[in-house]
Amino acid sequence: MTRKQRKKKAFIAVICVFLAIILILAGLIYKNLLSPSFGITQPVSIYVDENKDFNDIMLQLKDKAKLKNPALFQKMAEAMNYPKNIKTGKYDIEPNMNCLQAVRMMRNGIQSPVKLTFNNARLKSDLAEKIGGQMMFGSGNLLAELDNSQVCSSLGFDTATITAMFIPNTYEVYWNIPVEQFLKRMKREYERFWTEARLEKAKSLSLSPIEVSILASIVEEETASKTEYPMVAGLYINRLRKGMLLQADPTVKFAVGDFALRRILFSHLEVDSPYNTYKYAGLPPGPIRVPSAAGIDGVLNYSRHNYLYMAAKEDFSGQHNFAVTLAEHNRNARRYQQALNSRGIR
Predict the structure, then answer these.
(1) Beta strands 170-173 and 114-117: pairing type?
(2) What is d(CA 59, CA 37) in angstroms, rounded to the nearest whole number?
(3) Taking the alpha carbons of 321, 325, 328, 332 in that order, is the dihedral positive or negative?
(4) Domain extents for the chain?
(5) How many separate helices (H) and strands (E) can be counted in the chain?
(6) Each residue of 146-159: pLDDT tens digit?
(7) Considering the chain, what percentage of its residues have pLDDT values greater than 70?
(8) Alpha-carbon distance 240 to 238, whole Å?
């Protein structure tokens, strides 16, 4: 082998070693920086509020996202100055995400929205708990706003009617939205719900949207069957038009503060509350629950009939027997009372 050939062979060997080192380094870089850094098979959410520091975030990443190399994540976060630039929010860690992507996402405040849902809320406190439990501002801050007369007035409501502004649905919102902005968002959703068609139907009933919501809340508390909403709504509309007391048992339960009552007694009917529709004419001051879209539409599309009375069916189905006359109603009511007696319900 000539000297020239030996030099060429040595050069090739050096090149091979160099390429091998490059490949090893590339593999290490991929393994540590570019390959998935979390041991999860489904996305998990990391929540960062004003009280969270970098150590709290690291704990969440290790416990919830199964961070594989905390030391590497920390070094990368420090290199990108993330510990001094923490932004609040909800951040979704995906199974295929690497450290670089995760740090960049959280440092830049690239959040994933919350799919906010709320339904079946009776009291303001129930509503605040259902919503606040899903948001950074919490239930206490929301309830304080809903009890603030100036805040409610600025939104076009009062502290008794403010729950009518919340139309149960699924909304995409950012977890760290300030409570004031959230309320403005709910007002926009309320206005979007009340289309021209719905407003026209409310006007034909001589009711405001808020009054429709109040009546819808009574209808929903009165019957467990959505198919009965228009029928029950029609009955109460008949009573309103005749100037009769609504005499709605659910308003008495609300006034008493006991929603589990199965039997309304004469003592309950004497409770002095503006929500007691056995004592006070017209609609109560506010909704007795947060009405659903179905309940509101049940009022707007009420059934035209002559019924003025209703009594729960004796089969405890949650539906009702309707009557035009008081005599007929009393017969229906007796059957229900007898059913209560037979079951020992007092």
Answers:
(1) antiparallel
(2) 15
(3) positive
(4) 34-112, 114-193, 196-342
(5) 15, 6
(6) 999 999 999 999 99
(7) 90
(8) 6
As to burial, measured by CB atoms within 10 angstroms (0-12 exposed, 13-18 middle, 19+ buried), residue 87 is middle
Q: CA 33 to CA 73: how far, in whole Å?
A: 9
- pTM of the complete model: 0.85
- Give domain 34-112's CATH number out of 1.10.1370.40, 3.40.50.2000, 3.40.1160.10, 3.30.1490.480: 3.30.1490.480
C-alpha distance from residue 38 to each of 4, 20, 79 (Å): 52, 28, 20
Q: How far apart are CA 93 and CA 37, in angstroms?
A: 10
Cα 230–Cα 233–Cα 235 angle in degrees, nearest 5: 115
pLDDT band of 106, cuts 50, 70, 90: very high
Residue 37 DSSP code: -
* Residue closest to 148 by CA, chosen among 137, 133, 140, 158: 158
What does the alpha-carbon distance between residue 308 and residue 234 come to, in Å, rounded to a whole number?
A: 9
The chain-wide mean pLDDT, for the chain, equals: 90
Residue 150 CB-density burial (10 A; 0-12 exposed, 13-18 middle, 19+ buried): exposed
Amino acid at 290: V
